[in-house]
Design goal:
alpha/beta, binds zinc ion, 190 residues, five-stranded mixed beta sheet, 6 helices, Collagenase (Catalytic Domain)
Amino acid sequence: MFRAKLVAAIVGAIASVTLVGTPTAAATGEAQPSAVRTIYYDSSRAAELAPLVDQAAQIWNAGVTSVKLVKGAGGISASTAQNGAAPGMASCVGCTRGTITFYRNQIRSSGAAPLRVVVHEFGHILGLNHPQDIGNCDKVMAGGRCDNAQPNAQELAAVQRFWASRGLAPAPGAQPDESTVFDAPASAGV
Ligand SMILES: [Zn+2]
């Protein structure tokens, strides 16, 4: 029957889409340095910051080609909570699975733009640590009481290199210490 064929065709199409999205090469453990890595992020628990999470993903996606942040489950879970020790916390550096938590009290008191905080935490997920010049507003990873949410060319290049060289086997780093980064006074770019 035509109807049965149509259903079969739709089911087949869904199955093939699912297969395309499955990282089959990961199972073999073979590194594919040229492959674009996909990091899924879930903003469903980020509350009022959810639009900024999407915006931060777009900012990073616009600047690098070796890795792509895509909305979906099973990767980085972003959530927003009331009180914490820093505006944001990322559970790992250079990782495809983990958590980011934002804290309203600290975002309010830090003086940093909320979007800058969100872009900064994704920067950790994408492999970046804090630079020496904390408070340099040109760098999103430098924290500080700054408004700028656009990573500079150096930061984008570092993310690009990290994922291009790691291929399918990133080596996640430890949780960064966020306790004082955004309290630092803003400094002029160098
Ligand atoms: Zn940080």
